[in-house]
Every structure is written in C-alpha cells, then in structure tokens.
C-alpha cells in the first residue's frame, strides 16, 4: 500500500508521525507539522488508506491494517523509532500501533480519542453510516457532522477553521471513509493495554468535545502511567485546528519535558 504524505523539516531531525482522524486528511495536521518542522523536527503526515490522496479498494479497513500501513511508511522513510500522535480515529490507530509495535514508538500523543468499545447502538450506527455514505456521498454527512466537530465558539470566531473542516469532510472519498467506519466498528478494546504503555504520553482534549468528552481523556490519563493531561479551553473535537496556538504550546512543552527534542 502506497500512502500519500508530506515530509517536512530536516531529514536529520527527530521523526514525528501524525495520524489524522475521520473523515479528514493529512492537512488536518498542517499547523502542527509546520510548527514542529520550524523547531527542527522531521514531521511526516500521511493520508490514511482510503482518505485524501491515498487510494483503496477495501470495503472494510480495520485499524491493524491502518497501523501496518504506517509502520511500512516509516520503514520506507527509514524513520526507525518516532514520536507518534493521532486524533480521534487516528488516536485509536496509534493505540493499535503502539500495542503491536511498541519498540517503534518513543513518545505518544493521544488527542480527542477513546480506548473503549462502542455501545451496540453506536457500532450499528457505524455500519449504517457506511452504507449511507456509500450510496449518497459525503456532502450531507459532512454538514450534519460539522456542528459536532468544532465548538460553537470556533464556528463564531474562526470561519477559516470551519471552512477547512468542511472541505476535508466533503472531499473525503466516500468508499474509503465507509471502509474505515466498518473496520472501526470491529476494533478491539484498547483499555486493558493502556497500563502497559511505557513511553511518555500526552493526552489532550477540547473542553467542548462532544464525541470524546473530557471524561474519556481523564480515563486515558488515569490508565497510562505517568501521562500528562491537557484540556484546551473552548475547543471541540479538533483543538489542534480550533486553538492551534494553545495546542502547539502544549505539544512543544510536552516534547521538551519528555526529552523528545529535535
């Protein structure tokens, strides 16, 4: 599987691999990639299989497949081990990757994500939504998701962020997004493995996140030994875009304090 990706910053810098959520693309991480690259990190932001410019013929893509794609990309780029971050579905892929390949990850960032399983109703909703967007496309789905993705304050104050989020969702390939929804419905429960994470971990969440509320981030923080929790005030599910200055400062402070310097 060949993934589309951006590779910013000096090739000699400490590698950082950032994993986008659903239904987005690698531009979701653009503010962080540009900031970290200026600071001397080598930042790789791929489009996951079936998203952005990365193609797929899958009708179901499970999280282990996404994780293995990322390891293969890291091998191709000779990244060795790396700082690994993911948001929402990207965070669950990150949890899968660190469980399957713990030797590859030096530092972990889990943003607006959760470790547990869906309720039966939520699981069925993923299957139903996958069928719906396969039939109808992404446009209406994107409009329905948008008010839940970003906070009311962001929508009022940051039309640029709203436009970016809407574009990513509307432009997401429907078949790839549907395949991911089906695979995500069948993901394992990562909660039991959290206590075995042995690398410095930042857990970050928007205070107004409707999809993964602060309580979910607090659970991750409690279960992951020595982790750091940061709540970004006024942000919804995408604090890295809604409040990029605050998010970037939290990320840079954490990387410096954990020894993950460029």
UniProtKB/TrEMBL annotation:
GO molecular function terms listed in the Swiss-Prot or TrEMBL record: hydrolase activity
Entries under InterPro entries matching the protein: AB_hydrolase_1, AB_hydrolase_fold, AB_hydrolase_sf, Epox_hydrolase-like
Domain (AB hydrolase-1) ranges: 15-243
Keyword Hydrolase among record annotations: yes
Alphabetically ordered keywords of this record: Hydrolase
Keyword Hydrolase: yes
Protein name: Alpha/beta fold hydrolase
Organism from which the protein derives: Amycolatopsis melonis
């Amino acid at each position: 599987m060949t993934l589309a990706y951006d590779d910013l910053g000096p090739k000699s810098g400490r590698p950082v691999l950032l994993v986008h959520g659903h239904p987005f693309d690698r531009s979701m991480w653009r503010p962080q990639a540009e900031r970290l690259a200026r600071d001397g990190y080598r930042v790789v932001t791929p489009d996951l299989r079936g998203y952005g410019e990365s193609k797929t013929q899958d009708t179901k893509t499970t999280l282990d497949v996404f994780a293995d794609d990322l390891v293969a990309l890291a091998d191709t780029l000779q990244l060795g081990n790396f700082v690994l971050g993911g948001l929402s579905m990207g965070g669950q892929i990150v949890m899968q990757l660190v469980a399957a390949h713990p030797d590859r990850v030096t530092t972990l960032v889990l943003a607006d994500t959760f470790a547990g399983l869906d309720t039966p109703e939520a699981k069925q909703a993923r299957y139903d939504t996958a069928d719906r967007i396969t039939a109808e496309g992404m446009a209406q789905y994107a409009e329905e998701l948008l008010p839940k993705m970003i906070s009311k304050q962001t929508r009022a104050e940051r039309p640029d962020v709203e436009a970016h989020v809407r574009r990513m969702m509307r432009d997401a390939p429907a078949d790839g997004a549907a395949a991911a929804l089906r695979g995500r419905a069948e993901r394992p429960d990562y909660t039991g493995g959290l206590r075995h994470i042995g690398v410095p971990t930042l857990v970050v969440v928007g205070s107004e996140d409707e999809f993964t509320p602060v309580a979910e981030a607090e659970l991750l923080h409690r279960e992951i030994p020595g982790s750091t929790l940061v709540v970004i005030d006024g942000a919804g599910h995408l604090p890295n875009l809604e409040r990029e200055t605050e998010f970037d400062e939290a990320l840079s402070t954490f990387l410096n304090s954990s020894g993950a310097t460029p």
